[in-house]
Amino acid sequence: MPFPMLSDPTRSLARALDLPTFETSGLTLYKRLTLIIRDGVIEHVFYPVFPPGEHAGQVLTWLRANPQ
C-alpha cells in the first residue's frame, strides 16, 4: 500500500483516543474511520465512513483542499 498502516492488536490507540469499536464473534474491531496525520498530529478524522464506496474520493477531495 502506498501509505503507512498501523497495527494495534491491543487497541491501545483506541483507548487513548476513544476511537469507535464494535464487537462481533468474540472480537473487538475498529469501526471504519480514516485519520489524516501530518507530522505526528491528527489533522482530520473521517467518521463515519459513509458511503464506503465513495470514501476514497472524499479523502482525496479533502487532501487536495488542504495541502501541506
Description:
- This protein is of the alpha+beta class and 68 residues long.
- It has one domain (12-65).
- It has two helices and four strands; from the N terminus they run H-E-E-E-E-H.
- The longest helix has 11 residues, at 55-65.
- It is globular.
Describe what is shown at a glance.
Helices cover 25% and strands 28% of the residues. The protein is α+β, with helices and mostly antiparallel strands and 68 residues long.
The helix fraction, in percent, is 25-40%
| Range of strand content | 25-35%
Q: Average pLDDT value?
A: 92
Low-confidence stretches: none
Compressed to H and E, one letter per element, the order equals HEEEEH
End-to-end C-alpha gap: 21 Å
Silhouette: globular
Helix/strand-derived category reads alpha+beta
User: Any idea what the radius of gyration is?
Assistant: 13 Å
Q: Using DSSP, what is the number of strands?
A: 4
| Discrete helix count | 2
Side-by-side strand order of the widest sheet: 1-2
Major β-sheet annotation: 2 strands, antiparallel
Total individual domains:
1
Defining key terms:
68 residues, alpha+beta, two-stranded antiparallel ribbon
Give the SSE layout:
Layout: H1 12-17, E1 21-24, E2 27-30, E3 34-38, E4 41-46, H2 55-65
Antiparallel strand pairs: 1-2, 3-4
